[in-house]
Amino acid sequence: MYEPIRAKSVHSMAGADFPHRSREEELDIQLAGHLSALLAVTDELGLGTAADRIAVQVARLRGAPPARHAGHRREAPAALHRRAHTLAGRALVVAASRADTAAAILAAERMDAHTAAASADPVTPAGL
Questions:
Q1: Which of 26, 42, 29, 22 is nearest to 87 (CA)?
Q2: Are 38 and 91 in contact (CB under 8 A)?
Q3: What is the pLDDT of residue 124?
Q4: Residue 37: what are its φ and ψ, rounded to 5°?
């Protein structure tokens, strides 16, 4: 009939001996990732000053300076601006969630800049 379980369940949380990250640490990691991706696209667009500001925020979150994007894929600037706008939006959501004012302001500024750059490009579809 019924046989009792003799081994510990793999789903048991009692006595777990592995480190857990806090919600804030998880959000820091996520925000640093979004900002790093935005940094790569910003470097590819050749926006040095903006890229430097993003790199400062990534370094603050990670505790070390980020790797900078060296290779260029020769993608259309309009596509890069759309991608950068999307990444800045993701960073803005996470920055707002963790109440990081500096990162949120930077992300919002980058969204505005990429919207303006994309709307100035006649190839970019409306409704970016």
A1: 42
A2: yes
A3: 44
A4: -65, -40
Residues of the chain below pLDDT 50: 124-128
Q: In whole angstroms, what is the distance from residue 40 CA to residue 55 CA?
A: 10
CA separation, residue 98 to residues 37, 43, 53, 63 (Å): 19, 26, 19, 17
How many helices and strands, by DSSP H and E, does the chain display? 4, 0
| Residue at 118: amino acid letter | A
* Phi and psi angles of residue 11, each rounded to the nearest 5 degrees, phi first: -95, -5
Angle between helices 23-45 and 101-120 (to 10 degrees): 30
Query: Are the CB atoms for 91 and 103 separated by under 8 Å?
Result: yes
E strands within 66-128? none
